[in-house]
């Protein structure tokens, strides 16, 4: 690639990064198909198990050095290397004469395919598994471990097909200026760790690995634009704008509010207590979406009442006097749980037994969770609200509200993420205490576009006027019934769209902690009337791009934030 070119991906960690490209290529070649060992199966097995143990120990040592979130990720990888079922399939293959390196490669391959087929969070763990495999194959074939240079010189932009936690865990802003990957989504480890490190990152950037090593690139982790060989003036301009933006964001503090004083509580989306420090540091006023299924993922059995109680209590304790909205288990489709398999074959899991449907089918799981929640709220000053995912009808909303009342839970709401619930919101509102709109699934179902498919990204765009209409219908119905209506899907994290959502009638916004400062700053720069005009202009547009452009003309304060 020569001359100045611009590639475009998804910005997942805001900020500007500039430096020469370091290409992380798959440095460990696949062991030849059909490779055989020298006949001593026992010796080969011992060699493989020693290699897997060496890899596990190395990952753990890196984790201890890194600490925090990275340590948890690396420990999980070490567990993959020590997995007994994996060892079993390696042993069997070696027994049949397969060389150790090939046996390892094939055994990991089986797991990888299963994870990739599961989709969602699990599919995004496939890169972690590949990395463990490559490390073990490298040890067995006498090659250096794959990885990233130690640093010491000018910070580089790390470009890869995908990044494994072991590549990124020991990096810092001093070593790496930005991450760019061709694969990955907003919930991949590249994204999570980049945000935790404060390193700008762009994922799903097609063509990135085609950039020559050493080429200087400018990465915008907010817009997702990656420019090769940028003129010096452009780099300076981008850096200055970023510094100014950081200063403005740091200056906006306090509760969420429009310029004319309409309160819009800004809440955090969390997956568990580990996300609390970032939420508190970003000034979250409470929790708008606690995705409790993280407590249930990757387990053979549901967590017991005590374990759940402890996790919920920790979250409530973090927000004395604040509001904490906990979503009941959202199992199925992109969040499959080993101990809650669907009752039969499901050709379309996203349209199958999931969310509230699954919860109803397993009353003991539901009762345990609601009991643990009620106990956690008891004697706590935080205001606990509980909501159900994937509600489609009034009967389901009534059923859930009644189940919460029976469990002694004072506030029961529903997510609006199925179009039928949005269209009939006026009928559903009296049955519950609040709505929270899940724009990720609402877009998936409104446009019949699988949210896991990158190729359908344009239909998943939350600026689509049809989606804005559904949000407007739901928010208006809630407000007329005197109920609150939040948004907790990814749409709330876009500062421009956040203003439009307020204009559509939404009363609170919940997002990943990293997005809170920019949304807070965007709201303080616009009045409720300006938000209303922006919402109207966006709904009158004929496409997502037109809606975005029309809203921007009504929200001039965003220019000073370089958004
Ligand atoms: C949503 O669907 O918008 C949502 C917030 O829920 P999840 O992303 O967990 O499905
Ligand atoms: Mg959802």
UniProtKB/TrEMBL annotation:
Origin: domain of life: Bacteria
The EC number of this protein is 2.7.3.9
**Compartments it resides in:** Cytoplasm
Domain annotation PEP-utilising enzyme mobile: ranges: 154-224
Q: Where is the Phosphotransferase system enzyme I N-terminal domain?
A: 9-125
Alphabetized, the UniProt keywords read: Cytoplasm, Kinase, Magnesium, Metal-binding, Phosphotransferase system, Pyruvate, Sugar transport, Transferase, Transport
Per the record, what are the reactions this protein catalyses?
L-histidyl-[protein] + phosphoenolpyruvate = N(pros)-phospho-L-histidyl-[protein] + pyruvate
Q: Tell me one GO molecular function of this protein.
A: metal ion binding
Primary location recorded for the protein, binned into one broad class? cytoplasm
Q: Name one GO biological process term.
A: phosphoenolpyruvate-dependent sugar phosphotransferase system
Where Mg(2+) is bound, by residue? 417, 441
Residues at the catalytic site: 189 (tele-phosphohistidine intermediate), 488 (proton donor)
The protein's job, in short, is: General (non sugar-specific) component of the phosphoenolpyruvate-dependent sugar phosphotransferase system (sugar PTS). This major carbohydrate active-transport system catalyzes the phosphorylation of incoming sugar substrates concomitantly with their translocation across the cell membrane. Enzyme I transfers the phosphoryl group from phosphoenolpyruvate (PEP) to the phosphoryl carrier protein (HPr).
What protein family does this chain belong to?
Belongs to the PEP-utilizing enzyme family.
Which protein, by its recorded name, is this?
Phosphoenolpyruvate-protein phosphotransferase
Question: Could you tell me the gene encoding this protein?
Answer: ptsP
